[in-house]
Design a protein that fits this description.
Blueprint (H helix, E strand, L loop, with lengths): L14 H8 L5 H7 L16 E2 H13 L2 H6 L17 H24 L3 E3 L4 H10 L3 H15 L14 E4 L2 E2 L11 E4 L4 E4 L18 E2 L1 H18 L3 E3 L5 E2 L12 E3 L3 H24 L1 E3 L4 E3 L14 E2 L3 E6 L8 E8 L2 E2 H18 L10 H6 L26 H20 E2 L4 E2 L2 E2 L7 E3 H18 L18 H21 L9 E3 L3 E2 L5 H18 L2 H18 E2 L4 E2 L7 E2 L1 H18 L14 H17 L19 E2 L31 E2 L3
Antiparallel strand pairs: 1-4, 2-3, 5-6, 6-26, 7-14, 8-9, 8-10, 11-12, 11-13, 14-15, 16-19, 17-18, 20-21, 21-22, 23-24, 25-27
InterPro entries: 6-hairpin_glycosidase_sf
Keywords: Signal
Organism: Domibacillus aminovorans
Length: 690
């Protein structure tokens, strides 16, 4: 592979833009003095370094939504955010707009471009099919695809970065420690003694240990990654830009990019990254549809058929919980030699973590002419250059003429509709009005897990918006004229029934909700933070989907009780179970979500009968900052969930500074944190101790 002419890229910037970033005035001494950590009343030690793909990618999706979109929606001009100016213009603005947002982005790149945590894109099904049709080797075809994508977004071919490991599907777990010394040698100089390290343009030194990877395909893991990819791809490709000045353009029509000075993507660099993400998604979806579904009739792996024609009553075709991968032995560009189902259950977590991203991606790929809410730039993406358009028979309102096709819209719709119908048929108990946590392929379970039931509501909300042609992505709460599809109506029915179940069966007199409910036995007695997170997420989603105030009021009640009962003012963190404060990525993501929802949807407004202090904007924002400071960043360099950080959050590389922490905060640079060679910028489990 070393002889191949193609190079691959890293994060969202070219080398030149990296230099522009680090060339700005950098007052090293002032930054360190302003951000010197205060003596903390708690310790937040790491409890485990196992990287959980599903939890991390889920959490970082919530971090993304709680980042730039949140502060911009509150009126902040994003141009004033500067990673060099810590806690400016306010600590909340910096925490959300810089840390939460950029941690989210970099973690995605670690998984899908740097770590090797999965199967290499060279072996992706679309890449292999195109290579075979053109009589080329897969690596040659992929190199040409990257050049084609670069041309489509106005990105210089020669500036595509090196030694990326693009994945088309990701494994469930791994060890995020680097296996060799990270190459921090100088690639290029900036001003104020800053420099761009080699590893920012060359990913060769950023691999994880393949022997420590859990080589299992789990829908929550590759679905959670898909969610991150879909959200960022939608953001990056949500407009056009000028080639000569890189100025972002909203776009007026799908043919705008036919102008030689207009290209796809909101900028050249973002466009390149977005195009690569879509290339990965496209291959992933084809692999999932063609290889990873399980037939309850045949008790084995099968290909899914046309989603609009799928009838679960004739036998379930669903995504099983775990599939073990035996690799082909190629350490450079590994592929699966064989697949074995090791757990054939349908697990609700897996299903909603596939429904959500495939709904997001549906909003990007939607080519139905009756949908007037699709961005012109999205239409331009799928006009056969650089991605194929959908088969015309798959775009009408007649399901009977739909055909199997590998284009992004059609393959995603097949996966989306299989998952939606299976959530309904396999997990929803019509008599009880709630979603069960498991289905063994033959019969439904009897336990409702509050966290997952709540997030299923949110995923159904995004599904309803996507299938009805309403905006998703960062605009997922905006009003618009919808298409009123049968699937959308059913989603609303499911949402309201599950939300009513939360209110009627899971809420206690205290305002808190219980961990779960067993049909025939009743509600659990245990109260957990995760249950509150799921309930607030689900009830708020029900409110946004139906505009029924009773769901907002219920969400406010649960949030208020959570704040008043579970918030530990001394530790500045929520109790997770009883007096414990043990956090994994799912919990961290849920906390990020409810704080965002409290700010955007639940905070006190004129007309609210009750005006609790917990729902005053100042209180919510203080919780956001305190939680992030304590649990995510931690009190010192060895503590906190965020294991390391990249230049995007202010830790620039400076000549003669070997501290591994040039911005003086509580998060080390990648090469300096937690291990012999450092650790990736991802989330690790912690326990808060007073």
């Amino acid at each position: 592979m070393k002889s191949q002419p193609w190079k691959v890229m890293t994060t969202v910037a070219l080398a030149s833009s990296l230099l522009l970033t680090s060339a700005c005035s950098y007052e090293k001494k002032t930054v360190k003095e302003e951000t010197k950590p205060q003596t903390s009343s708690v310790s937040v030690p790491v409890t485990d370094y196992t990287f959980d793909t599903a939890g991390n990618m889920f959490a970082y999706a919530e971090f993304e939504l709680s980042g730039e979109p949140l502060v911009e929606g509150l009126g902040l001009d994003l141009d004033v955010l500067d990673p060099k100016k810590l806690d400016s213009p306010t600590k909340f603005d910096y925490t959300a707009g810089i840390e939460s947002y950029e941690y989210s982005e970099e973690a995605m790149y670690e998984v899908v471009e740097k770590s090797g945590l999965g199967l290499h894109l060279i072996n992706g099904p679309v890449v292999k099919e195109l290579a075979e049709k053109q009589g080329k080797e897969s690596h040659e075809l992929l190199g040409e695809r990257f050049y084609k994508l670069a041309d489509a977004v106005g990105y210089p071919r020669e500036e595509i970065f090196r030694n990326m490991f693009p994945t088309f599907i990701e494994y469930a777990k791994g060890d995020p420690h680097y296996v060799q010394e990270v190459d921090t040698s100088k690639y290029a100089s900036g001003e104020e003694n800053t420099y761009v390290p080699e590893y920012q343009v060359n990913f060769k030194s950023l691999r994880w240990d393949r022997t420590k990877m859990d080589k299992v395909l789990n829908p929550a893991a590759y679905g959670g990654t898909f969610l991150k990819q879909a959200l960022w791809a939608g953001d990056f490709m949500g407009g056009f830009h000028t080639v000569d000045s890189d100025e972002e353009l909203e776009g007026e029509k799908p043919t705008d990019d036919h102008d030689e000075n207009i290209a796809l993507g909101v900028s050249s660099a973002d466009g390149m990254q977005g195009a690569i993400l879509i290339e990965e998604i496209w291959n992933k979806l084809n692999y999932v549809r063609n290889h990873l579904f399980y037939s309850s009739n045949d008790n084995g792996l099968t290909a899914a058929n046309v989603g609009s024609q799928y009838d679960p009553s004739k036998g379930f075709v669903y995504l099983p919980h775990t599939i073990q991968v035996t690799e082909d032995g190629n350490m450079d560009v590994p592929n699966a030699e064989s697949l074995e189902v090791t757990d054939a259950r349908s697990v609700l977590t897996d299903q909603w973590l596939m429904l959500w991203p495939s709904s997001e991606f549906f909003g990007t790929t939607d080519q139905r002419m009756e949908n007037e809410n699709v961005a012109p730039s999205f239409r331009a993406l799928f006009d056969n250059d650089p991605y194929p358009s959908a088969a015309q028979v798959n775009l009408d309102n007649n399901a009977e003429n739909d055909v199997t096709s590998n284009d992004p819209y059609s393959v995603n719709r097949d996966v989306l509709l299989h998952v939606f119908k299976n959530i309904d048929a396999m997990h929803f108990n019509e008599e009880e009005g709630a979603f069960v946590a498991e289905h063994n392929g033959k019969e439904q379970g009897n336990y409702v897990d509050t966290f997952n039931a709540g997030y299923t509501i949110e995923s159904l909300r995004i599904f309803q918006r996507a299938i009805d042609g309403l905006p998703v992505g960062y605009s997922n709460a905006e009003d618009a004229k919808g298409l009123n599809t049968a699937e959308g109506k059913r989603a609303i029915e499911l949402i309201t029934k599950q939300a009513d179940f939360i209110i009627d069966k899971l809420m206690t007199d205290s305002g808190l909700v219980v961990k779960g409910y067993t049909f025939g036995k009743g509600a659990d007695e245990e109260i957990t933070l995760n249950a509150q997170l799921g309930a607030v997420r689900g009830l708020t989603a029900a409110y946004l989907a139906t505009k029924d105030e009773k769901y907002r009021n219920a969400a406010r009640t649960v949030y208020q009780a959570t704040d008043e009962t579970l918030w530990d003012s001394k530790a500045k963190a929520y109790k997770t179970v009883k007096d414990e404060m043990k956090y994994d990525a799912f919990t961290a993501g849920g906390v990020s979500a409810i704080l965002r929802l409290a700010i955007n949807n639940l905070s006190n407004v004129e007309g609210d009968e009750k005006q609790p202090e917990a729902l005053e904007m100042e209180t919510i924002i203080s919780r956001y900052v305190d939680f992030y400071e304590t649990v995510i960043d931690g009190p010192d360099l060895e503590q906190g969930m965020q294991a390391s950080e990249f230049w995007d959050t202010g830790d620039f590389y400076i000549d003669s500074d070997e501290s591994g922490n040039t911005d003086g905060d509580q998060v080390p640079q990648t090469q300096a944190g937690h291990g012999k060679y450092g650790v990736a910028p991802v989330l690790v489990p912690v326990e808060v101790k007073k």
